[in-house]
TrEMBL record:
Source organism per UniProt: Actinomadura keratinilytica
UniProt-recorded name of the protein: Uncharacterized protein
Transmembrane domains' residue ranges: 176-194, 201-221, 241-261
Superkingdom of the source species: Bacteria
Keywords tagged on the record: Membrane, Transmembrane, Transmembrane helix
Organism phylogeny: Bacteria, Bacillati, Actinomycetota, Actinomycetes, Streptosporangiales
Presence of the UniProt keyword Membrane in the record: yes
Length: 292
């Protein structure tokens, strides 16, 4: 496969990666009652989404309620609310700055009962709370009745009290560095394979790159940057770049696959040193045999 073909495969990998990332994220589905979606961000901030437009007169009321709920959940933090539309469903989002202090152990206490008293005062007698956390080791108490997997979700109202959630996040920055090492091995393998061309080392080098790329992508390396943010190692745009860098393993893996196929073809087509050559057909006078 030519270098141009490898470049096309890399571009295709980037497009697939963007499509997969666009498919993620929280749902914009409309549910009965009022729902608080709490998302703790890896940079020390948070987002509080309030989906409760059914019984309120205007978007401004929804924003005011979302801002008040965010201030109850994160006392002392800076809060700014705005209206957001997702999948055709409008809701209010309160963006919180300084929701917690990054560190090696981050405890959080989210008292949703205070926020729900405000919602109950506006006539909402049912709904729920959902919690999203960064991709770091964490414990959540109390666990929702639905089990320990997936997004924690608590139903509220009709005899079910709003939870006071206690969270402890324990980031492990070494996980991101492990993904970075794997990505470096991918790049090194591609460089060796491209430089070796038709030598026997080209195929093994490309094979190592493929394996490392698969491990990097399958281990959700793009989320390992959350460990850097929650721990306070990086922040801002630098954190965003560091989080997305290991995802380059996908297009680089496609380049390595193209080099691996090329190396195998060259090994099969080019004779090795010392291999016997095909004897030429003797001419009219016949061929002289050495020693006669």
């Amino acid at each position: 496969m030519s270098v141009r073909g490898a470049g096309r495969l890399a571009v295709l990998g980037v497009l697939v990666l963007l499509a997969l990332s666009a498919c993620g994220g929280g749902g914009g589905r409309a549910l009965p009652g009022a729902w608080l979606d709490i998302a703790v961000m890896p940079d020390g901030g948070a987002q509080v989404d309030l989906r409760a437009a059914g019984r309120l007169r205007s978007d401004a009321e929804v924003r005011d309620l979302a801002e008040a709920a965010a201030r109850e959940l994160f006392p002392g933090a800076a809060v700014r609310a705005r209206t957001v539309t997702s999948r055709g469903y409008p809701f209010a989002r309160a963006e919180v700055t300084g929701a917690y202090r990054p560190g090696r152990r981050v405890p959080l206490r989210l008292d949703t009962a205070r926020a729900w008293r405000r919602l109950a005062g506006r006539g909402f007698d049912e709904g729920g709370v959902r919690l999203w956390l960064p991709s770091v080791p964490a414990t959540v108490r109390p666990r929702p009745p639905g089990g320990a997997s997936g997004v924690p979700e608590w139903a509220v109202g009709r005899g079910r009290p709003a939870p006071v959630v206690r969270v402890e996040m324990r980031p492990r920055p070494v996980r991101w560095f492990g993904a970075a090492v794997l990505l470096a091995l991918v790049v090194a393998g591609i460089a060796v394979s491209a430089a070796a061309h038709d030598r026997p080392v080209a195929a093994p080098a490309a094979g190592v790159s493929i394996v490392c790329a698969v491990v990097t992508v399958s281990a959700a390396a793009g989320r390992q940057g959350d460990n850097l943010g929650v721990a306070g190692v990086l922040g801002g745009r630098v954190l965003a770049v560091a989080s997305s860098a290991p995802l380059a393993g996908l297009p680089l893996g496609l380049v390595a696959a193209a080099l691996f196929v090329r190396a195998l073809r060259l090994l099969l087509l080019v004779p090795t040193a010392g291999a016997p050559c095909i004897a030429r057909r003797p001419g009219r006078g016949g061929a002289r045999t050495p020693g006669r």
